[in-house]
Design goal:
With 244 residues, the protein is α+β, with helices and mostly antiparallel strands. It is 48% helix and 9% strand. The strands form 2 sheets. A 4-stranded mixed sheet has the order 1-2-6-5, covered by helices on one side. The protein has a two-stranded antiparallel sheet with strand order 3-4. β3 and β4 form a beta hairpin. α3 packs across α5.
Amino acid sequence: MDILLPAPAPSKLLQTLGAGLAGLMLAGATSCGENNPPTPPCIEITPPADLEPTVTDVIENGVDFWETKGVTLTLDHPRYFQKSDSPCRLSGSEILRGTSFFNRHLGQISIRKTSKVTHKKPVETQVVIAHEVGHAVQARKGQTYHPKDDNERRDLKILKEAGADCYAGMLVADRYPDDKQAAAEFTGDHGDDTHSTGSTRKRAFLIGAQEGAKQDVCSYTALSDKLDIPLPGDSQPTVGQADL
């Protein structure tokens, strides 16, 4: 017959260590949750009636315009999300921080209203979507960069965004010429840490709008010279097609 003996009581030391470890684990979990809250998912909505026509028009004009420049774009239907000023997660590591985002893997633009960009005026939407179409052009042309450190990463990020502003200027000037100045002003009113100062953004937009016929006007190298933003020698972008 098996005899079941009672398990020995843990020693005072083990009890103390166990309680301390549990406390540390609990405190750590609470601390992580408080300091690094997960980014909530973006809430998708049906296309807003006051927004969809302009978005569709700019995308269609963008595809047509860039085809005349020898750049073929394949853009999926855009996605619309609930108005918010807070970052939200689209999928995986892709975060929608502002009013719009271009997913280069899917060829898709995501868009939402924010307190800064309400899309009450068509020109606001024209500029925002033209900028994202500009990123699509960069992706199609295979522009990549390889920063060595945080300083290079920041400068190259600014050049990338300036390039999208420059391409936006080219598109708006060609397809919406009457809105060119208002679009430049709107771009200049929306500087931030990610896209650079408003004045730099406006200059980039106007370079595209006024000099778009010139070769390479929106390339990283050209904008580095015109905007006085360093382009490190080891971080020269590689391109799949010749820069416009």
